[in-house]
Specification:
CATH class of the largest domain: Mainly Alpha
Shape: globular
Radius of gyration: 26 Å
CATH topology of the largest domain: Methane Monooxygenase Hydroxylase, Chain G, domain 1
Helix content: 40-55%
Number of domains: 2
Strand order of the largest sheet: 4-6-5
Order of helices and strands: EEHHHHHEEEEHHEHHHHHHHHEEHHHHH
Number of helices: 20
Mean pLDDT: 81
Number of strands: 9
Length: 486
Amino acid sequence: MRGFMEGGGIFEGFRGTSGGNVSQKTMISGSFVNCQMDEPAEPTPWECEAYEQYVHLNELRKMWNCRQWPGWSNEPLVKPALQGLEMSFRFISSILCDARVYIDKAEWIRRLESLTNAQIELISIICEGDNEAPTIQLAVSTGVLGMGVAQEVWQRPGALPVVSRSSEESLLPRLATWKRAEDLVARLRLSVECHMQRVPFTLGLGEPNLRGKPILDYDRLCQPSHVYALKNGGQVQGNSEDNTLSTAHQIMEAWLHVAETLVGRIHENVDSGDVETAARDCWTVERIWRLLTDAINLLLLMDPDDFLRLKQQLVITSSGLPAGAYCLRSKGLNNVTKGCKDLRHLVPKVVGVEADPKGGPRLQEAVMRIFHSHGREGAAYNSGTVHLLQAFQAIEAGVKRFFFSYQQLVVVVMGSVEMKSSSYRSGAPDVLSQIYTEPPYFPSVDGAKTFLGDFWHYSHHDSVNLHPLCTAKPDASMTRVDSFRS
C-alpha cells in the first residue's frame, strides 16, 4: 500500500535524548512515513452482492439517485439523510412491537432516541442556509379543514388561524398515537423544532413550528412508504434480529451516501478556493463518521443467542475476509474510506505550496508557518485554512475510530476467539486493525504539529531558564524550528 504522503517525500523531526536536556536533530526515515502495509483482503463479488441484496441497496440507490428537483443542489444530500431518519422511526416501531420479553427495550429506546437526535442535528446542518428546498407554505384557515392526517391549527394574536400540515406518510405522526411512544415522540418533535431554528424551513413531522416557517415537502422527497417497504432483509423468518441487523446497515448505507457526496463537494470547494465551505463540509463528514459508529454500535444490544443463530442462517462467513470484517462488504464504506484518505492530495492546494518532488520538507514548513501565524496573510487572517487542515485530521480520526469500534463490536457479539480463529483459518491479516493503525493520512500536517510543539518546548525552556543546562541549545538541533520563529 502506498504511504499517505501528500507529496510522497520524507520529513525531518526532533526527538529529545533520553539522558538530558540536549536534543538532537533526527531524520524520520521514509520507511516510517511510507511504511509498506499488506493490501487488505477484499470480499468476493458474490459476498458484496449478497450484502447488497440483504439490505435492499439497489432499491435504495435508485431512490437516492432519482432527481425530482434538478435545480436543488442539496437534494442528493437531504433525500438519503431523511430516509435514514425515517428508517430510525421504523426501527423504533419495530423495537416497541417486539414481543420478546428478554430484550432490554428501555436501553434500545434510549439509544435509538440518541441516534435519531443526532440525525436531526446533522440534517439541520446540511440544510442551513438552503433557500432552494421544495416547501409548502402554511395555509390560512377559512373555517373548513380538510381530511389530511395530523393537521394543527394555531393563531397568533391579532392574526387569522394558521393551518400547519405534517407528513401523512411518515411513521413519526403515527407513533404519536401510541400510548407507549407519545413521550418519545414529543421529545423528538421538540428536537426537530430546536435544531431547525437555523434553517429557512422545517420538516413537517408534527413539530410546533412556532415561527410559522414553510414546511419541507417531506412525503414527496423522502417517500416514507417506499422506505417502509424495505423493512427487513427477507432472508430469515422467525428471527427478530434479522430486522435489527438489516435496518442498522440500511441507516449506515444512507449516511455513507451523504458522506460520499460531501467528499466530492469538498474537492470542488477546494478547487474553487472556498476553504470555509470546505471546512464546514469536512466537519459534517466527521460528524457522519461519529453517527455511523453510533448506528453500528446498536448491534451491541442484540440478543446473543438470536444473533448467533442468525449468523449461521445468513452464513455470515467469508472465504476472503475474517468473519469480523463484515462491514467491508459495503462498497459504500470502502469508497467513503478511500475518499477520506484521498483528501491528502488537497493539502498542497490548500496551503498554496507544491510538494517537493525530491522529498524535502517544503510543504511541512509551509503548514507549520500557517499554524504558527494562525493563518495570517499580510495584515489579514485567513483562519479558514487552519480550520480546514484541522478538519482533515478530524476526519482521519473519525475513520479510524469507526473501524476500531467495529472491531470491538465484533468481539462482543461474536467472541474474540471466533474472530481470531477466522483470521488464522483464512490466512488473512487482521483487516480491521490494519485499517485503524495505518500511518497518518496527512503526514505534513502531522509533522508540522510535531515541529510546532518542539518550537514552543524550546521557547519555554529558553524563557524559564531554571538551570544552567536549560540554556544548552545546539544550533544544529534548532535549525528547522528557528526558521519560522520570527
